[in-house]
């Protein structure tokens, strides 16, 4: 843990001309973080995930020196999208192409101008369950990221692909990016938040993403986690939906040795809807842990969740999903489904779907199933002349196909389909 | 085509077939009749290579090759096909994609050129007509949301597409109404020729009314106790099985 103190001191010293409010916020957040420490197995919501590799590691904050150019062929590029590129925490405006209807501000500028937005008090007020050590750590050291605001009434047809690329550096680095995505009233946009590792040594990314949908806006948020297999990725994402807004999220996680994602989604206006789907493919010793809380605090809102995991080798998965329906809300409709395919006897899944309902006018469903490849299905395919690998490939692709079909943009869907197929191929070897 | 000699076999250590002999020549349709538990499905599972089914003694040869050591997919590639009693639902796997993959596996096995998607669509549309199936089934997942009759017709569609040498029809008549039964029987009859063989496993004579079996065999307690022509099936229909039990 000592390295956090050292890195924090360096950050404060090198940012002496930062405004006081921000410095105060950093200091206060860091105090809160150091007091709590990293979550341990004794913390109810964190007990299946072991953070000792972060605790005992030694990651230094990335600096300007860590940027030595961009790979010749940028990996992970999805065709027919706008590009926003960040390399080792550094935003690359010259290599980015942002449509004019989007106001983009680098994190550093945004923290200065809107420091009250980032205050712990405002966080506490809106997201009482969202304050956790990784959030406070991010707030104390947030050093990169972007604020994107889609103008009111703007309809942006091409997706914006935000690539957060981590490339090889001399030491093991960490980054605490902070993203703010804001969809103005009546706007429509597709944002791809894409984490991509392009290096061999270990690193630690700890992003926080705040997403707000104004009245009657529509947002497609695609989150792709393709960090390298020995990295650490801990993320906090917050969605706030105002009146008559529509959110569609497709999350896909393939990388990281240690992956933990806390998702908080809150309906703050009537007649809004959110569909959240997440696909997680883990192999070898990867650990994928996703916690989601969907809070129905307004009337006539609709939420659907679908989480699917395929676990092979010695990998492990955690799904913890909670739907909270607040008192006095009306006509809530919420569903939650979790399906897991466990391919090896040493892979492990922990699933915990929960409902907390404090209102009467509610339609809710939830369920979770974990199983192995159906031997009957396997025999059926083989009896038609398909070999073991091809049969397994068909069954696994079939298992994830409904998730892929939920991706509304064809280019993004094709990309995910291809990456998923490559991952499944690796699993089969 | 298929030669079974003194076959003793069972599932998970439980003995079921008790010295079964059967020879099926090219072009022949053999019907195997018997009560539940007589060993009919075990015979089908032994021929197709389902997991946990084991030969304890005797042998099963297909075109001279010993089947015991062959994987199910290799038996299929060699030309063995089973129409399942309970066709399996495979969620998310497109029916057309699956069937083309299966056909291509077979073409590849015989070192023939694989069929492209457009040619396959042309082929499959022709086959669909033979079993009165709507094109909408092509875009569905394998057997997903199919009624009992649709599943059985889908099995026959697969048979017509993959063109096996030996087709085992395991209780293909069960769960079919008379119209569906006629369609299935017509599909099989049109497919018959001097080089293809069939084994139809059934409880009842019903299916056999629409096909022309060359031989009827009665299976009791894991043995063929009587063989004959279609008149044997008619006799069983009237008298049941008990007169054949010793």
Summarize this entry quickly.
The complex is a heterodimer of chains A (429) and B (246). With 429 residues, chain A is of the alpha/beta class. Chain A has helices at 2-14, 20-36, 52-55, 107-113, 120-126, 133-141, 375-382, 388-405, 410-428, and strands spanning 60-61, 82-87, 90-91, 102-106, 144-150, 160-167, 173-175, 177-183, 188-198, 204-205, 208-213, 218-226, 232-241, 246-253, 258-267, 273-282, 287-296, 302-311, 316-325, 332-342, 348-357, 362-371.
Walk me through this protein's architecture.
The complex is a heterodimer of chains A (429) and B (246). Chain A is of the alpha/beta class. Chain A has two domains: 2-269, no CATH class; 373-429, no CATH class. Chain A has nine helices and 22 strands. Chain A has helices at 2-14, 20-36, 52-55, 107-113, 120-126, 133-141, 375-382, 388-405, 410-428, and strands spanning 60-61, 82-87, 90-91, 102-106, 144-150, 160-167, 173-175, 177-183, 188-198, 204-205, 208-213, 218-226, 232-241, 246-253, 258-267, 273-282, 287-296, 302-311, 316-325, 332-342, 348-357, 362-371. In chain A, the strands form two sheets. In chain A, strands 1, 4, 5, 7, 8, 10, 11, 13, 15, 17, 19 and 21 form a twelve-stranded mixed sheet that branches. In chain A, strands 3-2-6-9-12-14-16-18-20-22 form a ten-stranded mixed sheet, covered by helices on one side. In chain A, β2 and β3 (90-91) form a beta hairpin. The longest helix of chain A has 19 residues, at 410-428. Chain A is globular, with a radius of gyration of 21 Å. The two termini of chain A are 38 Å apart. Chain B is α/β, with parallel strands linked by helices and 246 residues long. Chain B has one domain (2-92, 143-244): P-loop containing nucleotide triphosphate hydrolases (Rossmann fold). Chain B has a six-stranded mixed sheet, with helices on both faces. In chain B, α5 packs parallel to α6. The longest helix of chain B has 15 residues, at 95-109. Chain B is globular and about 55 Å long. Chain B starts with a strand and ends in a 7-residue tail after the last helix. In chain B, 43% of the residues are buried. The A-B interface holds A 374-377, 379-388, 390-391, 394-395, 397-402 and B 48-51, 71-73, 75-77, 81-82, 84, 87-93, 97-99, 101-102, 105-106, 109, 141, 158, 162.
């Amino acid at each position: 843990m000592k390295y956090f103190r050292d890195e924090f001191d360096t950050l404060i010293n090198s940012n002496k001309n930062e405004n006081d409010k921000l410095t105060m916020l950093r200091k206060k957040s860091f105090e809160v973080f150091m007091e709590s420490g990293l979550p341990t197995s004794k913390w109810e919501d964190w007990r299946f995930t072991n953070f000792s590799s972060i605790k005992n590691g030694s990651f230094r904050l990335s600096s300007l020196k860590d940027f030595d150019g961009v790979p010749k062929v940028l990996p992970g590029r999805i065709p027919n999208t706008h590009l926003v590129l960040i390399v080792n925490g550094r935003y690359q405006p010259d290599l980015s192409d942002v449509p004019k209807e989007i106001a983009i501000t680098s994190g550093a500028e945004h923290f200065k101008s809107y420091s009250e937005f980032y205050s712990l008090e405002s966080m506490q007020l809106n997201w009482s369950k969202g304050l956790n050590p990784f959030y406070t750590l991010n707030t104390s050291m947030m050093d990169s990221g972007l604020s994107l605001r889609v103008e009111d009434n703007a309809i942006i047809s091409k997706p914006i692909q935000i690539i957060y690329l981590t490339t090889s550096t001399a030491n093991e680095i960490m980054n605490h990016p902070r993203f703010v995505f804001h969809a103005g009233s009546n706007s429509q946009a597709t944002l791809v938040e894409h984490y991509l590792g392009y290096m061999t040594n270990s690193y630690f990314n700890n992003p926080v993403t705040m997403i707000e949908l104004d009245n009657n806006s529509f947002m497609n948020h695609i989150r792709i986690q393709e960090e390298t297999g020995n990295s650490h990725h801990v993320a906090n994402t917050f969605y706030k939906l105002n009146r008559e807004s529509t959110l569609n999220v497709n999350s896909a996680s393939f990388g990281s040795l240690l992956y933990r994602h806390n998702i908080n989604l809150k309906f703050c206006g009537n007649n809004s809807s959110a569909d959240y789907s997440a696909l997680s493919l883990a192999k070898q010793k990867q650990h994928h842990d996703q916690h989601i809380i969907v809070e129905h605090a307004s009337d006539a809102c609709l939420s659907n969740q679908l989480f699917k995991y395929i676990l092979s080798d010695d990998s492990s998965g955690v799904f913890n999903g909670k739907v909270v329906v607040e008192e006095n809300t009306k006509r809530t409709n919420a569903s939650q489904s979790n399906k897991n395919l466990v391919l090896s006897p040493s892979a492990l899944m922990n699933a915990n779907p929960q409902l907390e309902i404090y209102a009467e006018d509610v339609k809710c469903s939830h369920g979770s199933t974990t199983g192995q490849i159906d031997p009957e299905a396997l025999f059926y395919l083989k009896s038609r002349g398909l070999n073991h690998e091809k049969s397994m490939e068909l069954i696994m692709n079939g298992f994830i196909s409904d998730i892929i079909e939920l991706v509304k943009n064809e280019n993004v869907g094709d990309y995910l389909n291809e990456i998923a197929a490559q991952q499944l191929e690796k699993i089969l070897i | 085509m298929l030669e079974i000699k003194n076959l003793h076999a069972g599932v998970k250590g439980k003995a079921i077939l008790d010295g079964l002999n059967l020879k099926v020549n090219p072009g022949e349709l053999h019907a195997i009749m018997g009560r539940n538990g007589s060993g009919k499905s075990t015979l089908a599972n032994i021929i197709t290579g389902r997991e946990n089914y084991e030969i304890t003694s005797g042998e099963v040869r297909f075109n001279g090759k010993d089947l015991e050591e062959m994987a199910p997919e290799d038996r299929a590639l060699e030309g063995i096909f089973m129409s399942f009693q309970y066709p399996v639902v495979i969620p998310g796997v497109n029916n057309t994609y699956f069937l083309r993959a299966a056909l291509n596996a077979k073409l590849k096995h015989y070192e023939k050129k694989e069929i492209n998607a457009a040619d396959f669509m042309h082929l499959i549309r022709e086959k669909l007509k033979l079993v009165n199936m709507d094109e909408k089934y092509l875009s569905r997942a394998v057997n997903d949301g199919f009624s009992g009759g649709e599943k059985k017709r889908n099995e026959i569609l697969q048979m017509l597409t993959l063109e096996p040498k030996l087709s085992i029809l395991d209780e293909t008549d069960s769960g079919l109404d008379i119209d569906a039964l006629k369609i299935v029987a017509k599909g099989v009859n049109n497919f018959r020729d001097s080089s293809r063989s069939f084994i139809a496993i059934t409880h009842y004579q019903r299916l056999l009314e629409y096909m022309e079996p060359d031989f009827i065999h009665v299976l009791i307690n894991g043995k063929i106790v009587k063989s004959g022509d279609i008149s044997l099936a008619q006799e069983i229909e009237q008298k049941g099985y008990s007169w054949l039990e010793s």
